[in-house]
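#lab-general

N.A. 3:47 PM
ok so I finally got the sequence cleaned up, no stray characters, all 216 residues accounted for. can someone with queue access submit it? mine expired

B.Y. 3:52 PM
send it over

N.A. 3:53 PM
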Amino acid sequence: MEAVKTILAEDDTRLQKAFRELALAEAGIDLLGIASDGEQAVQMAMQFEPQVILMDIQMPRLDGIEATRRIKRTLPSVQIVIWTIFGDDHHVFEAIKAGAMGYLLKDSPTQEIIEGIHAAARGESLLHPAVAQRVIHEFQRMRLAAENAPELLCELTPRETAVLRLLAEGKRNREIAAQLFLTEKTVKNYISSILFKLQVNSRTEAALLAVKRGLI
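B.Y. 4:20 PM
back already:
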C-alpha cells in the first residue's frame, strides 16, 4: 500500500501527538506536517501539496470551513476530509459545500482512520449516514430555492441586488463596502437581509443563485 501524503490540521496538542504516533507506526501514511490553525493549514497545503488533509473545523485564526474553501480554490486535487466529533454534522455539511469530501471521527478506531485516509486519496467520499441524509435534504432544498429564485430575486432592493452581484463575483465585505461607499457593518446587514429573502443559509448559496439567474 503506497503511503498517502497527509497533513493534519488540528489545534488540540493531545490529538496532534496521537495522530503523529499513528502516522509513525503506519507505513501507509506519510505525515508531511501538522497545522495548529486554519491559516497554517492553508500555508502548508500550498507548500507541500498533500494528497489528503484531515481538517478540524473549530481552529484559531481561520476555521476549517474557510480553510477548506481557500485550499480547494487553489488546489482542487487535494482531498480534504473533516476531522470531527460525532454530532457535528451541520458544520460538516457546510464544509462539504466548501469542498470537503467527507469526514472521519476523531475517536474512530485506528484502522478506520487509516482506511479513511486511503479512501480519500482514491477520491472516494466519506459520509456518515446521518450526514448523507442531511446532504440529500439540503440539496433538495437548494434545488427548490433555485427554481423559486426569479420570484425571490424580485424581492431584493436595488442596493441588495448590487451587493449580491458583487458577492457573486467573489468580493469580500470590505471590497463590497469600498465599491459601494458603504461601511462593512452596513454590508453585513445587507447580506443578512439577502440570505433571509432568498431563503438560503450561506453567502455561497446566495452567490450560486445569483450566477444561475444571470446577475453576473
